[in-house]
Amino acid sequence: MVQGTSVDFQMVRDTMYKYSKKAEERFFSDPCFAYFFIQFAKSEQGKLYIENKLGNSG
After folding, report:
1. Phi/psi of residue 8, each to 5°?
2. How crowded is residue 23: how many other Cβ atoms within 10 Å of its Cβ?
3. What is the 3-state secondary structure (H, E, C) of the chain?
4. 34-53 as b/e, with b when 16 or more CB fall inside 10 Å?
5. Which residues of the chain have pLDDT under 50?
6. Which of 7, 3, 14, 10 is nearest to 36 (CA)?
7. What is the pLDDT of residue 9?
8. Could you give the CA distance from residue 13 to residue 1 in angstroms, rounded to a whole number?
9. What pLDDT score does 20 carry?
């Protein structure tokens, strides 16, 4: 946890750098992380980012 916040950044790091199905399940079991992921995935910038990362052109 970051001092003074209730955010568990270990869950974010595990999903990003030590990905596993278990890490993904822990990440999405947190309503705040799930909400922010949905907002990111629905945004134009998020869609462009994902397309670029996956190498898709549309």
Report:
1. -95, 90
2. 18
3. CCCCCCCCHHHHHHHHHCCCHHHHHHHHHCHHHHHHHHHHHHCHHHHHHHHHHHCCCC
4. eeeeeeeeeeeeeeeeeeee
5. 1-2
6. 7
7. 83
8. 12
9. 94
